[in-house]
Amino acid sequence: MQTNPQPSKFESIASWVVPIGALAAVIAWFIIAPEGALGKLDAIGYAVCHRIDARSFQIDDRQLPLCARCTGEFYAAGLALLFQVFVSGRRSKLPPRGIIAVLFAFFVAFGVDGSNSYLYLLKQTGGNGSLLDQIPNLYLPNQTLRLFTGSGMGIALAAMLYPVINQTLWRELDDRPALEWKQLGILIAGIIAINLLILTDSPFVLYPIAYISALGTLSLLVIVFGLLWTIIMKQDNTFEHPRQLWLAFASGLTLALLLILSIDLVRLRFTGTWSGFPGLSG
């Protein structure tokens, strides 16, 4: 009969130190982040997004924690991961080639729209007569394209990350693709419907999206750092039940919040504002 190995001395110490570190990181985040619930979410978005006001959705003239593109990317990634937890379980194979081709198309659309939008921003901030004026934009950037290409990228990220999570964590795996055509169709249809609701600019939609997108951002960082912790601790493919993941989760949360706080403090030191980068608009 196979038995689980006894934890090492380092693992035993980590089981006490990591939760304390996680609690300290959460407290520091609450102290440093701006006031209010949305202010705490702003501190998450501030670490990964330019937060330019004109490129963000607004709730009564108050911008969301992330720009339109990042809002789409991270809310879709968070919901797509949650969707796969319920429909895919411990399926551990990458999607079939046809689905990977669709996901790659989402990635290309994200890159093209992002590059076109960034070029437009540089031309606006560079003033007339800039050398960039000689480079034509493919089209005029807009919030709708930012939202849809961002959410497509979020689906792609989640679809590729989910089987990697299963491959890393579980002792017993389900050797089937983590995402198949029917599931992908349901996921895309759901995200499109949510995007259309977002474009109504209704506060009843934007408030929950603000939370989902910011927490989706944090969740991705927690997952990545948690997997890294698991690999470093040589615990990959040893877990049998989700409750055994508490230490990896606490470690991921601690490292994610430390990264967010570090970026926040450096950016705040140089810009002096929790909003978008000074001098960039449009």
| Count of spatially separate domains | 1
* Gross morphology: globular
Give the number of helices. 8
Can you write the helix and strand succession as a string? HHEEHEHHEHHH
* Unreliable residue stretches: none
Q: What would you report as the Rg, rounded to the nearest angstrom?
A: 21 Å
Overview of this structure, please?
The protein is mainly alpha-helical and about 280 residues long. It has one domain. Helices cover about 65% and strands about 5% of the residues. The strands form two sheets. A two-stranded antiparallel sheet has the order 1-2. It has a two-stranded parallel sheet with strand order 3-4. Strand 1 and strand 2 form a beta hairpin. Helix 3 runs parallel beside helix 5, helix 3 runs antiparallel to helix 6 and helix 7 crosses helix 8. The model has no long low-confidence stretch (mean pLDDT about 90).
Helix-strand blueprint:
Blueprint: H1 9-32, H2 37-46, E1 58-59, E2 62-63, H3 68-88, E3 91-93, H4 97-126, H5 143-169, E4 174-177, H6 181-198, H7 203-232, H8 246-271
Parallel strand pairs: 3-4
Antiparallel strand pairs: 1-2
Helix pairs in contact: 1-8, 2-7, 3-5, 3-6, 3-7, 4-5, 5-6, 7-8
Précis, in short:
The chain is mainly alpha-helical and 282 residues long.
Keywords summarizing the entry:
282 residues, mainly alpha, two-stranded antiparallel sheet, two-stranded parallel ribbon, globular
